[in-house]
Amino acid sequence: MKPFEIKKGIYWVGAVDYDVRTFHGHTYSANRGSAYNAYLIVDDKIALIDTVYGPFAEELIEKIRSIVPPEKIDYVIANHVETDHSGAMPALMKLCRKAKVFGTSKCKEGLNRHYYEDWNFQIVKTGDKIPLGKRALTFIEAPMIHWPDSMFTYCPEEKLLLPNDAFGQHYATSERYDDGVDQCELMDEAAKYYANILWPLSSIILRKIEEIQKMNIPITMIAPSHGIIWRKDPMKIINSYASWAKNESKKKVVVVYESMWGATKKMARKIVEGISDAGISAKLFEIAQSDRTEVIKEMLDAKGYLIGSSAHYNDMLPDMAGFLAFLKGLRPKERSAAAFGSYGWSGGAVAAIENTLKETGISIAQSSISVKYSPDGNELKKCYDYGKEFTGKL
Ligand code: FEO
Fold first, then answer.
1. Which atom of ligand 1 is least distant from the CA of 83?
2. What is the tens place of the pLDDT at every residue in 153-212?
3. Which terminus of the chain has a smaller tally of CB atoms within 10 A, N or C?
4. 305 and 386 together in one domain
5. Are residues 186 and 263 in the same domain?
6. Are residues 313 and 167 in the same domain?
7. Which of 227, 245, 228, 225 is nearest to 81 (CA)?
8. What range defines the domain where residue 9 resides?
9. From the CA of 114, how far away is ligand 1's center (Å)?
């Protein structure tokens, strides 16, 4: 893909990664690939906003070279240390040794610990500006959105916000703008990204949105460092972030279970029947066979969670334990949950699930339901009623 002029003299020079399927190690399933976005501003001074993942360094450099010789870059803005954005820096900086690098103090520390290079680094803080000629760049520190070093860059003359990871999506497409892609796909990927990466940082994100609103800076385009650029309606993604960050949810139940020989599965299905007959939407997942990243996305706007497992060594089954460990890290708030499961002799699964949910900060809305070995007709009716009753707690 060639460079793409997003505003006069401002070019997308990133890379689309159609092949990647796991991100952040294996913690994120990037089913639609990803894109590492970098932006080149050609003014009296030439500035590059972020780079790309290391394996795409040559692609970045060739795109830049098709516009200006990389040696002429004056400024490199490092909004974020993580290697999907800084990985190409060593190769690029070899070509523009005199370029000044701008970033937060944590960014300087982080880049030092990643690359051990002696780049000409200038630490910047919120409100600091660098003139480029006809335009200027302003910096807004954004610690923990989502690393301590994170920063947004803003170009007032273009009303352009470059927020790095924030408002991004792992979404590979030949299109560069929100108006060129399927809106359901786009919002699905944006929600998945928020749920799996940013959810635990919601209070910080909400404060940052409020801070930017108080700064009263006009924004007509948001160009994140993953996925597509928001130009049709940038407020759509800002409002979605505000809603997710406020923990807004709807009457929807996500039922997640793991079953050894099918008894917990039978319970789960009857529970879902009860929820559905109460007029509430339910999503059902067997966790060992499901894409965890997608399950978490479904939990983002659901008020209720029902978690089930067969008993295993006085505990829940291991895939469910791993799933709940991940969920605990995301710290969802203002959600209601309950536990269910089958057992053979001593049990232990539902108690273990409840303990983990409590540690996560999720309230237990009703007592657990357990079945010895396999549920009979009467017990399946109880599961049905259990699901129905749970909807009343939402
Ligand atoms: Fe896309 Fe935090 O890196």
1. 3
2. 999 999 999 999 999 999 999 999 999 999 999 999 999 999 999 999 999 999 999 999
3. N
4. yes
5. no
6. no
7. 225
8. 4-245
9. 14
